[in-house]
């Protein structure tokens, strides 16, 4: 897409502090970082969200994400890493080009959890698992 910010970065029209690039993916520093080392891993072709990824892009982006996460942990000395990936407006997506945040985390960094935890009963869990399995 001509006006997509990530497509423009891939084409070299906008600057990025690049970490890694391969045939299918690119990773670079997030300019709106929660912590130093906060990186983004994107697929190079424009794909709006996870629902538009084929098996090749899915595998490539998660392989690249694992590499970047290991580098982020090694370089920042963080206590952990959060991977965040949002899809569609209701899911919290704000840039409509598939990407994964690699966010270094530190004990007591006070970043809020994403949701309140609830413990459904086993019957409800089993019923949902069966429905999801059937949809595959």
Mind explaining what this structure looks like?
- The protein is of the alpha+beta class and 136 residues long.
- It is 31% helix and 19% strand.
- The chain has one domain: HIT-like (HIT family, subunit A), CATH 3.30.428.10.
- The chain has a 5-stranded antiparallel β-sheet, with helices on one face.
- It starts with a helix and ends with a helix.
- The relative contact order is 0.17.
- The mean pLDDT is 94.
- Keywords: Hydrolase.
- This is Hydrolase.
- Pfam families: HIT (PF01230).
- One of its GO terms (molecular function) is hydrolase activity.
In short:
Keywords: Hydrolase. Helices cover 31% and strands 19% of the residues. The radius of gyration is 17 Å and the shape is globular.
């Amino acid at each position: 897409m001509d006006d997509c910010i990530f497509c423009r970065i891939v084409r070299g029209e906008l600057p990025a502090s690049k970490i890694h690039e391969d045939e299918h993916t690119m990773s670079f520093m997030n300019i709106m970082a929660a912590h130093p080392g906060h990186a983004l891993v994107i697929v190079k072709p424009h794909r709006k969200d996870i629902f538009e990824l084929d098996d090749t892009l899915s595998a490539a982006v998660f392989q690249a994400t694992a590499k970047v996460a290991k580098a982020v942990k090694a370089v920042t000395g963080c206590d952990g890493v959060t991977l965040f990936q949002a899809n569609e407006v209701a899911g919290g997506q704000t840039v409509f080009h598939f990407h994964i945040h690699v966010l270094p985390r530190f004990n007591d960094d006070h970043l809020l959890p994403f949701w309140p935890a609830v413990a459904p009963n086993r019957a409800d869990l089993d019923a949902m698992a069966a429905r999801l399995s059937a949809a595959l």
